[in-house]
Amino acid sequence: MKTMPGVGVLLAVMTALAPCGGGTSKKHEAPPAEDECGAIKAAFFPVINGEAGPDPAVVTLTESQKLAVGAILINYGMALCTATLVAPNVVLTAAHCVDYGGISSISFVGGEDYRRPAFTFAAISWHEHPDYAGLSPEFDVGVVLISGDTAAAGITPLPVSCETPRIVGQTVQLVGYGMTDPYGGNNSYRWWTTMYVDREMVNYYSVYGDGMTGLCQGDSGGPMLRTMEDGQVNVVGVTSSIDADDCLGHTFYPRTDYYCDFISGYLPQDPCEGETIQGRCDGQTAVWCEAEAVVRDDCASRGWLCGDDGTGQMRCAPPPDPCEGETWEGRCDGQTAVWCEAETVMRDDCAPRGYLCGALEDGLSRCVDECMLIGRVG
Q1: What is the DSSP letter of 135?
Q2: What pTM was computed for the model?
Q3: Would you say 5 and 186 are in contact if contact means Cβ atoms under 8 Å apart?
Q4: What's 16's DSSP letter?
Q5: How far is residue 185's CA from residue 366's CA, in Å, rounded to a whole number?
Q6: How far is residue 318's CA from residue 305's CA, in Å, rounded to a whole number?
Q7: What is the pLDDT of residues 64-92, one digit of tens each?
Q8: Which neighbouring-strand residues pair with 73?
Q9: If you write DSSP's letter for every residue of 205-265 in order, what string do you get?
Q10: For 238-286, how does the pLDDT look when each residue is reduced to its tens digit (9 = 90+)?
């Protein structure tokens, strides 16, 4: 396990609270919403004891999918949150990362180290949930719209799940650019960790790492990732807050299924309704997206089967040939006669019987006496 010094989440907000010292929260109990001065507290946005990559037993991500998890730098780096590209120009984060006053610029940057970014995209607008009131995790979901060609940068978005699964007790993948030491330092690297879902409320999940790992300041807005029933990795939650100052308590995640209407309002409309060029088999019907339209091909209507066409695409194809291309007429493989009979490939080695393989008068290639071969000169 690796630990490194870290960077705080909303530094401008935290600086404003510094003169009053802020309040402290008790481990495993929700912190008060206000500090001693009556100001809204900056929540702890918890990765402590993280790993350099995701756990393949929980989620399997390509390098381009890993790039979807980046950081948003607010006001040229004066504040930091984690975020996820969920569509070509749509970034999902926490509402508290984008709702405070005085934001003049936001950039979405990514790679293993955001200070040496693999890409940088400027935001054109940012939006918190209209009902967010600063009380995490209630409505703590935000969206940043960016300009530029993310596909050309090699990024594959991680889609948002609008399903409502029962996942209490399941292990999920978490990730962020936040502090790796809750008491200060600098961190600019992306770290991954896993925890299990210990509570499932109607609008948020709670996850816990048994006091061994946790999220921390700067991880706000990062994704909760889960492998869905179809094998695809989806974002199912957004890092919001934690109930312990040491960043090792319970972390709370607003559920993407509960806030799907808000998130979907910023997603581009999909003319293919989620179907892809790779396609899938719905029984013996091949279904795929082509030229922004859903194509359905009934394979059974012509006696074919739906399956991988050899290029990774699911399409209609003729059923396997039991004769592997061999025919009733047959052929000679050296002195072995090869032909198909009753959907079975037959092989007859002529040499042990002193025969030759050749064509008879009826055109069939079989083992025969050399005097019977067509055209043989005596």
Answers
A1: -
A2: 0.63
A3: yes
A4: H
A5: 83
A6: 6
A7: 999 999 999 999 888 899 999 999 999 99
A8: 80, 107
A9: EEEE-TTS-B--TT-TTPEEEEE-TTS-EEEEEE--EES-TTS-S-EEEEBTTTTHHHHHT
A10: 999 998 888 889 999 999 999 999 999 999 877 887 788 999 999 999 9
